[in-house]
């Protein structure tokens, strides 16, 4: 039933209808005639259409969604405050590695930093080998080594420079990150990237790996541990460093790599104590023009190499990084050294020309 006083679709009001019935009974000549069923239907349809039509200039106020959004944000904020109040430790864990150490990774080191990283260090454990250490913020493996954009340099095109930079990083991975090499095996893949047409370098490689000494020390190029004494903790080596390049002698691409590696290791003795060995190594290499220098394709010539180690054995030339598990190698007769400080060049880090004393590490 419609609620507007419209009976059956007729256009007559109740008063007219009553008057029509009365006058029809009385035989009045001018009495209004009852509309036909079709007329009633058409009238009803027209009224319904009039009710639906909206004027084309009619103004419709916009829906105020902003209040709903603000209300929803307010509810979420209230929930967050409640979570913090009830369990602040869990919220703090959202930004840590689960051990309470901030695990936010650092961006790669594209330029030399201006200061050493802050914070003190604590002793590592098997479950948390990088805890309380700047290395906790460093990337893993080659991800922590910045490779700059390539540009045409010397005899090389941009594409050739890019390939050589990637090969330089491959050498760092094969010499200082390869698991087999770290456990004392021969660094075959790394050696394959070194130009064999360097008589002095070939002698150094052969002698250092078979009869290591102060003069022939393989650690200037490779990271190796004695598998009978030391075992690496986990599969992660933290790194931070960069690769730079310029045109070298005779148009060669001169590449300088400067990277710090942090190795967590455990003693194979019964106590199984864990410590960290920190190695900063600089290797300078030339990718020569084969039309001017005798070389094998895809290999580089070693220009220079230097290494600074912490807790790797002072005046120990057995071909292995040899950690001290009693005092983390903190003692020495040289100047104090922060092994995580990369704000100084290797020249300064090495103590100047001729200073080969063992430094005292300020932290590990």
Task: Summarize the model shown.
The chain has 364 residues and is α+β, with helices and mostly antiparallel strands. The protein is built from 9 helices and 9 strands.
Elements, N to C (H/E): HHHHEEHHHHEEEEEEHE
State the shape.
globular
Distance between the termini: 89 Å
- Output the number of helix runs: 9
Radius of gyration: 41 Å
Helix content percent band? 25-40%
The amount of beta strand, in percent, is 15-25%
Overall domain count = 2
Q: Are there runs of 5+ residues with pLDDT below 50, and where?
A: 1-11, 28-32, 51-62, 68-73, 75-101
Mean pLDDT: 79
* Largest sheet data: 7 strands, mixed
Secondary structure tally: strands: 9
Q: What structural class results from the helix and strand content?
A: alpha+beta
Q: Can you offer a commentary on this structure?
A:
By secondary structure, the chain is of the alpha+beta class. It has helices at 14-26, 37-52, 65-86, 88-93, 158-176, 179-182, 188-191, 199-210, 346-349; strands at 139-140, 145-146, 230-232, 238-247, 253-267, 274-287, 301-310, 336-337, 360-361. It folds into two domains: 14-52, no CATH class; 134-361, no CATH class. The protein contains nine helices and nine strands. Strands 1, 2, 3, 4, 5, 6 and 7 form a seven-stranded mixed beta sheet that branches. Strand 4 (238-247) and strand 5 form a beta hairpin. The longest helix has 22 residues, at 65-86. Residues 1-11, 28-32, 51-62, 68-73 and 75-101 have low confidence and may be disordered.
């Amino acid at each position: 039933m419609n609620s507007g006083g419209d009976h059956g679709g007729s256009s007559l009001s109740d008063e007219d209808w009553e008057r029509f019935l009365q006058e029809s009974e009385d035989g009045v000549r001018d009495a209004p005639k009852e509309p036909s069923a079709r007329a009633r239907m058409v009238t009803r349809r027209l009224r319904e259409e009039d009710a639906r039509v909206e004027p084309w200039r009619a103004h419709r106020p916009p829906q105020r969604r902003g209040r709903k959004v603000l209300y929803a944000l307010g509810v979420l904020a209230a929930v967050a405050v409640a979570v913090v109040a009830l369990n602040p430790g869990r919220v703090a864990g959202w930004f840590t590695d689960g051990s309470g150490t901030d695990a936010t990774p650092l961006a790669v080191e594209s330029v030399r930093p201006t200061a050493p990283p802050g914070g003190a260090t604590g002793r590592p454990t098997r479950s948390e080998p990088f805890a309380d250490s700047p290395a906790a913020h460093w990337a893993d493996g080659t991800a922590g080594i910045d490779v700059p954009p390539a540009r045409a340099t010397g005899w090389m095109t941009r594409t050739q420079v890019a390939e050589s930079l990637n090969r330089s990083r491959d050498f760092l991975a094969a010499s200082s990150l390869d698991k087999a090499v770290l456990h004392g095996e021969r660094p075959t893949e790394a050696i394959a990237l070194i130009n064999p047409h360097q008589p002095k370098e070939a002698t150094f490689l052969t002698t250092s790996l078979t009869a290591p000494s102060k003069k022939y020390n393989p650690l200037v190029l490779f990271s190796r541990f004695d598998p009978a004494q030391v075992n690496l903790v986990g599969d992660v080596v933290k790194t931070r460093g960069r690769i730079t390049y310029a045109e070298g002698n005779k148009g060669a691409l001169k590449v300088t790599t400067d990277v710090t590696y942090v190795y967590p290791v455990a003693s194979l003795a019964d106590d199984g104590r864990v410590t960290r060995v920190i190695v900063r190594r600089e290797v300078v290499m030339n990718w020569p023009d084969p039309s001017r220098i005798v070389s094998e394709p895809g290999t580089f010539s070693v220009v220079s190499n230097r290494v600074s180690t912490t807790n790797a054995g002072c005046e120990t030339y057995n071909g292995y990084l040899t950690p001290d598990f009693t005092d983390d190698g903190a003692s020495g007769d040289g100047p104090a050294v922060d092994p995580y400080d990369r704000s100084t060049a290797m020249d300064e880090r090495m103590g100047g020309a001729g200073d080969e004393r063992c430094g005292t590490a300020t932290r590990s």
